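[Automated response] Your request has been received and processed.

Submitted sequence:
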Amino acid sequence: MAAARSRERRLAELTVDEFLASGFESGSGSESESEGAAGAETRRDPDGPGGAPSASQHKGYASEHKDQLSRLKLRDPEFYKFLQENDQSLLNFSESDSSEDEGQQPHSLPETLEEASEEGDEDEDGVSRGLKGKKRDSVPVTLAMVERWKHASKHLTPRLFHEVVQALRAAVATAQGDQEGAEASKFQVTDSAVFNALVSFCIRDLLGCLQKLLFGKAPKGSSRVQQPSSSPLWGKLRLDVKAYLGSVIQLVACVAETTVAAALLQHVGNSVPYFLTFPRQCRMLLKRMVTLWSTGEETLRVLAFLVLSRVCRHKKDTFLSPVLKQMYITYVRNCKFTSPSALPLINFMQRTLTELLALDTGVAYQHAFLYIRQLAVHLRNAMTTRRKETYQSVYNWQFVHCLRLWCHVLSTMCPSEALQPLIYPLAQVVIGCIKLVPTARYYPLRMHCVRALTLLSERTGVFIPVLPFVLEVFQQVDFNRRPGRMSSKPINFAVVLKLSKVNLQEKAYRDGLLEQLYDLTLEYLHSQAHTIAFPELALPAVLQLKSFLRECKVANYCRQMRQLLEKVQENADHICSRRQRASFGVSSQQAVDAWEKQTREEGTPLTKYYSQWRKLRDREIQLEISGKEQLEDLDFPKIKRPKLGDKKDEDRVEFKDLFDLDSDEDGTTDFSERGMPGSSGAQQRAEDEDEDGSSSSEASHLEDGGPDAEAGLVPLELWLLAQGPEDELQDLQLSEEED
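Generated structure:
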């Protein structure tokens, strides 16, 4: 009794959770401990000697459990209400429910537990996967299935879209050689025709059907891009769209055919709104597009840049700065070597990178300031240390192309208040690069820097003293000196930074150098041809050209420079005549600007000449870049040198009588008579001429005035003399005297 009372006190002290966890035992004192122990043993071992519990016992358990639930309603009404809302089956317990499992074996744990599904939540039927049963076999995709999906896509459903995405994932896994991914997929794509049909269907039709499913028909005349996340069906399609975009990125990486890759990039460009919804997939896409922009085929480069531009225009704050940084690093990496074939690609990267920088002047200033300062640091180290290693850090293609890039950026984005402060430091870096090693071997590098400064000065309107670096070369090079050696082809200064000592002795070096000086002088003076101070600005050039014409003795060089001098003087006279009619003073900056603008619009003699010269020069540059010679367009006659075998065949045809040897004497060919009139026909003609006493052949030989004619030898005697004794076969012995 004492034990029963202590047990009642313990039950009274229990909370609701502890009471429910204790098995709903009533703890009444009427039950004896023996009966409780027996009942517990019976419940604990139903398959023991006593056998399975009877139906009456099951009904007792059911009624007892029902009474416990009714008491729970009084003790904890909140928990009872929770059970009513979430689990009615537990409260609607009946006595028949407990008898359904009668006679069934108790549950036993399996020997091995099943692994959880990798796909996660639900399969295509919407049923929770949880733990996978047996490994299901992959369904092979056929052309009939693809055609069926294509026809059904006109009325696309989320279930159909899910199946197509799963098939595409299997196709991409097979193309990448991912065996595990292909085995884990529901579908299997092994046939190349099925792969092509599936990819073609996804690229051409699937995106339009998905757009129609999300938004219906797009309103006419609406140019605004609709966000996929605004659709009410986006929650059902989100995971499938994410998987589809990931498969498309992987497919872009593994496709090698240019036409297929181009169609795929066009599809990616149309799918940009979907990529913007998923930041991770968008970053993966941008990384892949930067790679194609720098290393792909020409068409793929353009399409990749269009994708980059579209993404950066919609998400400037998020993606513009990282994309610009990655593109600049890639640009520098690809400029390490420059050749005629690589130069157009480098120029393409310059123009496209400038276009992206122009999207936001604030971001452009940050990148330009950082990288121009980096170039200045390299130049300062080279100027202070004066070592070969530091010189090489400046005098290389990467440094020069970076200078050209930032000159192109500042000249293109001008006028810009944000970038205006960067013009002066950039010009100082370029001028310092020219003055670092001012020797003749680095004249090509000087030409590249002068062109960059000319472009920067012309577009920004800032005066930069470029002309002295060009005129200095006229004083340092002796163009009258005879060349030390001849060269087979001209030097392409566009793809050269440094000349060798052998190049400095060639005639092609001086020809190319003078042509470069002509181009640079004309380009810079053309950029200043409309200014009111042109006569004073061009005076040093006029004096230097006159001095060159007095000293130079090479007619071709003098002809070019005399033509340039005449055009410069003509333009200076034109500006002076217009300037004399001006009614404003020099201090009136506004009036000077208006006068220069009007002069530029009307044109000057130098600008008219430059426009014609530029067309011809561009054509020559294109030929040089493409690796063609300028003389290829001219139709010169070609000397066809016949091969040795062809010549022998022609000789046999022409002198076939010489090879018709007499086979009556012996049945073998007599090679000793090769090339001699040893045929029977020749002998017969010689005998006839001798018997008839004809002197026609003798007269012909006498007329030739040869030694045989002077000796009075007839053709037969000549032939017998040339034939000599019969040949004897001997062992071949070689000596140094033989050829």
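Summary generated for your ticket: The longest helix spans residues 555-580. The mean pLDDT is 76.
If you did not submit this request, please reply to this message.
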